[in-house]
Amino acid sequence: QVQLVQSGGGLVQPGGSLRLSCAASGITLWNTAIGWFRQVPGKEREGVSCTHSHEDYTYYTNSVKGRFTVSRDIAKNTVYLQMNSLKPEDTAVYYCGTAAFCGTLINEYDYWGQGAQVTVSS
Fold first, then answer.
1. How many whole angstroms separate alpha carbon 63 and alpha carbon 86?
2. What number of other Cβ atoms are within 10 A of residue 48's Cβ?
3. Average pLDDT over residues 74-84
4. Euclidean distance between CA atoms 83 and 66, whole angstroms
5. Which DSSP category does 45 fall into?
6. pLDDT, position 104
7. Which whole-number Å values give the CA distances from 113 to 6, 22, 62, 65, 87, in the listed order?
């Protein structure tokens, strides 16, 4: 059974940093694409980043380029989303998901984490 367990959300002031974790069981992240999405109430889930280490590929949406960084810990089977210089418009519930290849469509992803609330506010 595949499970993705997220942690690391919270409240941070503008300009601050947070790191989200996505720990997997039942699946090896080395040969899997991991996407990060975010969603605010009333809007569709938006793709933020996707990485596939076997393909040596990482994507970031324009609004987070230079501020967010994805990394993997193969030994822990965990992917991280480091978020720096956070802005109020980054406020959302963040989800990690797995897929065969990186894509921007939600239905391309097979499994999802439970979500982590990120709130950027002074």
1. 11
2. 23
3. 95
4. 10
5. -
6. 82
7. 6, 7, 23, 23, 23
How far is Cα 3 from Cα 12, in angstroms, rounded to an integer? 27
For the chain, counts of helices (H) and of strands (E): 0, 11
Specify the residue for token string 């065969």: 100
Q: Are 98 and 32 in contact (CB under 8 A)?
A: yes
Can you tell me the distance from the alpha carbon of 32 to that of 67, in angstroms, rounded to the nearest whole number?
24
Q: Which two tokens stand for residue 21?
A: 């974790």
56 vs 55, which has greater pLDDT?
A: 56
**Structure tokens that stand for 58 in this block:** 């990482």
Q: CA 12, CA 10: separation in Å to the nearest integer?
A: 7
pLDDT in tens, 19-33: 999 999 998 888 899
User: What percent of the chain is modeled with pLDDT above 70?
Assistant: 99
